[in-house]
Predict the 3D structure of the following.
Amino acid sequence: MTEAHGRKAAQEAGGDSEAVRLHRAARGKWGISPRVPLRNSRDLSLAYTPGVAEPVRRIAREPEEVWELTSRGNLVAVVSDGTAVLGLGDVGPEAALPVMEGKALLFKRFAGIDAVPLVVRAPTSEALVEIVRGLAPSFGGINLEDVAAPRCFAVEEELVRSLDIPVFHDDQHGTAIVVLAALLGALEVVGKDLSDLRIVVAGAGAAGTAVAELLLAEGAGEVRVLDRRGILSPKRNDLDAYKRRLAERTNPEGEEGGLAEALVGADVFVGVARGGLLTPEMVQAMRSPAIVFALSNPDPEILPDAARAAGAAIVATGRSDFPNQVNNVLAFPGVFRGALSVRARRITPKMKRAAAHAIYAVARLEGISPETILPSVFHPEVVPRVAAAVARTALEEGVARLSRSPEEVEAEARRFAELGRRLGESVGE
Ligand SMILES: NC(=O)C1=CN([C@@H]2O[C@H](COP(=O)(O)OP(=O)(O)OC[C@H]3O[C@@H](n4cnc5c(N)ncnc54)[C@H](OP(=O)(O)O)[C@@H]3O)[C@@H](O)[C@H]2O)C=CC1
Ligand SMILES: CC(=O)C(=O)O
Ligand SMILES: [Mg+2]
């Protein structure tokens, strides 16, 4: 039987899951729609030649006009090399495409941002940087997605240095923003203080590194980070430069051990490593009331029922089908909405912290409880409030090209979010 015949037979035998059927029926989740009419040759002469020559000349003379005369100001590239796709590993660019189309869908649905999924074959960090740098003139921002550590750090650093539009590695910063927001909510429930906590982060890759850095910047007491060989420590001689820097920041005394040792007496577990890593015994060894964020996708480090049965007071996952979804989708639409609205040149650490506090503030509107430490991603206040907080901070930090009031940005974000909601809900009608 040929491969194509085998696939068809599997489909006919009902071998496709509901999710695969959705993707197959729609042939992907993303598309392009025009914004000006094209009914006749007059329309064509304005939108295309000869009319288009005038905006071309205008932009050549005054480069800033590109933001007014093209789609660039509301357009984000979602770029992946497919090297760390969810928790599925290095599956390659083609297999990464459903996730990138998904991110593009989320940008549009939640923030009215047009996003283009771009999966690229980039054998080296330098190649990835060159590709993105070459594409940048088309876009108002670059969302890097599912690029593995340590490559992601060098790539992001170089792109931030050389481009004057926001470059944001979602798995690092989007995740860190939402973890901080969720932790603020969880601490309100358990009555602990961030500065008193012992936090264990499993995973020293993109997500784990940024989570640890943002929690430390916010004033977290003690943070330990682990990779597959155990706790990052300056005494280890197998660390790359990024892990070494993190080891020196988090564990200067050189504590050693594996996950079981690290978790004894810990207040918080953040899993951004691999599904199934956390055992009930490890949860039992934590200090009560324990907070467990098992965030790997699609399979969390521990399932919520098992974590609760082992005594965890607050449990969160990255998934949409359990309560307390700690997922970067709560951050990146609003972060980019705010950044694009003031044409920010970059996204600073303060802008990230402001985004986290805005998400936490929305959770408080509804009342925080053990199962609602975060707002739902469908909460209509999330994107406008995050956008306003990001824009306000961009203005304060001097990285905004446009001077607009946070109220104006918030009102605009509300309009964009409503547009996205109507589009998202009317598809297929
Ligand atoms: N909920 C959310 O919003 C998000 C969740 N994630 C999830 O986090 C996970 C990691 O993603 P990302 O950081 O992008 O990936 P990376 O590939 O950049 O990093 C993965 C890290 O996990 C570590 N790791 C793997 N297996 C183990 C293990 N058995 N014990 C301890 N550490 C281990 C790796 O260790 P080593 O360095 O030794 O190889 C590495 O440091 C994925 O499952 C992803 O789905 C990511 C982003 C957002
Ligand atoms: C949510 C996400 O970005 C991830 O799991 O990689
Ligand atoms: Mg990701």
